[in-house]
């Protein structure tokens, strides 16, 4: 920084594809500071180094940053660029701020530039300071990619490209450049293993009315796959050619997504090309699951429910007989999932939080933090699987013994929130923040709350976090539409004590029409019993009790045919009506 006259250097948690989960090569924040969370921004000046992150990571960040020289700066608003205001207040005219444009989205770069440049601060988005000092930096992954059959996806690649071209025609743009990996995977019906837990392949896609080009490391696809892509109208070029290609684009206009395109790509587009900034058409298209995908997901949920049932039965019967830890039970759960048809990987690192670790919403056990389980207290397990026929994400809390009244009340109140959200009937064009308030209402009534969103979209054998819809307090102007799969996961967290979260995935469906308009509701997709021994029944209304009993009975009917007689008896006891 001193050599290049840089007063402040910004390191975002991202890669050239603006991914949430990163290949090892792009885990720059972890290499620099030791913080391994999936959301944060480092800002380094000559006399300060800080990590800006949100409430999900406060405890984790404080632990991981201890002794590093980096300080934790707590975000007031999740995903906000509050570090820009901090820089604005501390830097004077003529100061220089820099970042690597390959790691910053266009939206982030614009926020930095638009806030600081009018103050006379120089902003340079083409500075990579890590490349020269990161010894032994991991190479880009070289794992093979593969194509999915139309019978799995329900729609051919050529048909999806045609839909994108219709959108381009509607927006009156000539071309479209796609950087986000899940959009690429959905559009081309391709999957890979380049990012842990996310079945994506590193690449870019360029689409016009006349051509479609995939930029991917050529060794990742076999000849048959390349031939099939050519048959679907997709030409394959090398991954490394993408940036040079963009510099030579000779069309009149191009659509890019400012949240999902890195600044370096944006800044490579020739000056004469009009840039239209809006959400990738494929992002809106892929979030609406087709009938084939929905049918596959329903079956996948049954198989995932079998794995979860066997896991909890094993846990109950093994606790006290063998030494179990947060790490060992996460590995065991992955083993149960691996026995199920079509299993590929877990969909994120399992959160097995025992006692006060359950109060860390994004906790991930390490050898240093790993608790040994005892027959006492609460265990929170947030986990999921990637299957070739769908992606799962589920959170359950179970009692290991000696539960307090406070824990039972907290559990019951969270359960009320899950039920209220799941039962919601809402008019078409309802936004996620409205469902968020419905879910939180019974929790707010007790003067309790939680610091994360209530729900996120989920992909089809794709990223477990998928937009554009969200269920959280922010005013995101995206309606919940028929075919969207979203989580409902309220929680309560008492630092130093326990954490509770109960999560199901739901499908938005058309419900009924009346003289007042068309209404929608949710179909619950997740199939795993909800523990009733933690329920404080007098805190529930009869409608909540009826929903819980009906749900658990439905779980038994769906899962028991795939269980052994002993497993079915165990599950029958767990799903008894209260």
Number of helices: 17
- Give the biggest beta sheet: 6 strands, mixed
Globular, elongated, flat, extended or rod-shaped: what is the shape?
Answer: globular
Superfamily (CATH H level) name of the largest domain = Creatinase/methionine aminopeptidase superfamily
- Report the CATH architecture of the largest domain: Alpha-Beta Complex
Mean pLDDT across all amino acids: 96
Helix content: 25-40%
User: In the residues, how many domains can be counted?
Assistant: 3
Strand order of the largest sheet: 4-3-2-1-5-6
From the 3D structure, determine the CATH topology of the largest domain: Creatine Amidinohydrolase
User: Which regions have little confidence, pLDDT < 50, spanning 5+ residues?
Assistant: none
Structural class: alpha+beta
Radius of gyration: 24 Å
Give the amount of beta strand, in percent: 15-25%
How far apart the termini lie comes to 64 Å
Based on DSSP secondary structure assignment, what is the total number of beta strands? 28
Highest CATH level, the class of the largest domain: Alpha Beta
Could you walk me through the main structural features you see in this protein, from its secondary elements to its overall organization?
- With 578 residues, this protein is α+β, with helices and mostly antiparallel strands.
- It folds into three domains: 8-124, Creatinase/prolidase N-terminal domain (Creatine Amidinohydrolase, Chain A, domain 1); 146-286, Creatinase/prolidase N-terminal domain (Creatine Amidinohydrolase, Chain A, domain 1, 3-Layer(aba) Sandwich); 291-574, Alpha-Beta Complex (Creatine Amidinohydrolase).
- The protein has 17 helices and 28 strands.
- Strands 4-3-2-1-5-6 form a six-stranded mixed beta sheet, with helices on both faces.
- The longest helix is centred in the middle third of the chain and has 28 residues, at 291-318.
- The N and C termini lie far apart (64 Å).
């Amino acid at each position: 920084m001193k050599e290049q006259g840089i007063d402040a250097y910004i390191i975002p948690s991202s890669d050239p594809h603006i991914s949430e989960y990163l290949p090892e090569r792009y885990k720059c924040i972890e290499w620099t500071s030791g913080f391994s969370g999936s959301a944060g921004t480092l800002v380094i000046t000559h006399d300060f180094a800080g990590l800006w992150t949100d409430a999900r990571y406060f405890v984790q960040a404080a632990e991981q940053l201890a002794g590093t020289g980096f300080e934790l700066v707590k975000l007031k608003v999740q995903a906000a660029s509050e570090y820009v205001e901090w820089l604005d207040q501390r830097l004077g005219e003529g100061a220089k701020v820099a970042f690597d444009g390959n790691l910053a989205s266009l939206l982030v770069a614009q926020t930095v530039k638009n806030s600081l440049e009018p103050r006379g601060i120089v902003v340079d988005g083409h500075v990579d300071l890590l490349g020269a000092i990161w010894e032994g930096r991991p190479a880009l992954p070289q794992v093979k990619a593969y194509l999915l059959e139309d019978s799995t996806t329900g729609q051919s690649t050529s048909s999806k490209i045609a839909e994108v071209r219709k959108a381009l025609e509607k927006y009156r743009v000539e071309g479209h450049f796609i950087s986000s990996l899940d959009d690429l995977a959905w559009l081309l019906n391709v999957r890979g293993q380049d990012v842990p837990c996310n079945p994506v392949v590193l690449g870019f896609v360029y689409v016009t009315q006349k051509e479609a080009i995939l930029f991917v490391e050529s060794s990742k696809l076999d000849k048959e796959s390349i031939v099939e892509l050519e048959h679907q109208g997709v030409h394959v070029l090398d991954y490394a050619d993408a940036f040079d290609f963009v510099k030579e684009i000779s069309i009149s206009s191009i659509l890019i997504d400012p949240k999902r395109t890195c600044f370096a790509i944006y800044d490579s587009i020739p000056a004469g090309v009009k840039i239209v900034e809006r959400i990738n058409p494929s992002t809106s298209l892929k979030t609406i699951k087709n009938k084939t995908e929905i049918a596959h997901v329903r079956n996948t949920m049954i198989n995932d429910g079998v794995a979860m049932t066997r896991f909890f039965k094993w846990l109950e019967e093994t606790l006290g007989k063998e030494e179990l830890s947060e790490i060992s039970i996460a590995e065991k759960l992955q083993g149960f999932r691996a026995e199920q048809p079509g299993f590929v990987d877990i969909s994120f690192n399992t959160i097995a939080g025992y006692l006060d670790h359950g109060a860390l919403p994004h906790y991930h056990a390490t050898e240093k933090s790993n608790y040994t389980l005892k027959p006492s207290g609460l265990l929170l397990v947030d986990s999921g699987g990637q299957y070739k026929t769908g992606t799962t994400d589920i959170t359950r809390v179970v009692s290991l013994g000696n539960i307090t009244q406070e824990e039972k009340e907290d559990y019951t109140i969270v359960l009320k929130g899950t039920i209220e959200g799941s039962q919601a009937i809402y008019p078409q064009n309802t936004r996620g923040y409205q469902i968020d308030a419905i879910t939180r209402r019974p929790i707010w009534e007790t003067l309790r709350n939680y610091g994360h969103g209530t729900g996120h979209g989920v992909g089809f054998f794709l990223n477990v976090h998928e937009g554009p819809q969200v269920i959280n307090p922010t005013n995101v102007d995206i309606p919940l539409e028929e075919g969207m799969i979203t989580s409902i996961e309220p929680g309560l967290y008492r630092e130093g004590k326990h954490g509770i979260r109960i999560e199901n995935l739901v499908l938005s469906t058309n419900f009924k029409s009346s003289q007042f308009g068309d209404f929608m509701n949710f179909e619950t997709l997740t199939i795993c019993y909800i523990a009733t021994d933690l329920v404080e029944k007098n805190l529930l209304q009869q409608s909540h009790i009826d929903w819980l009993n009906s749900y658990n009975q439905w779980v038994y009917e769906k899962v028991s045919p795939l269980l052994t007689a002993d497993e079915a008896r165990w599950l029958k006891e767990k799903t008894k009506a209260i």
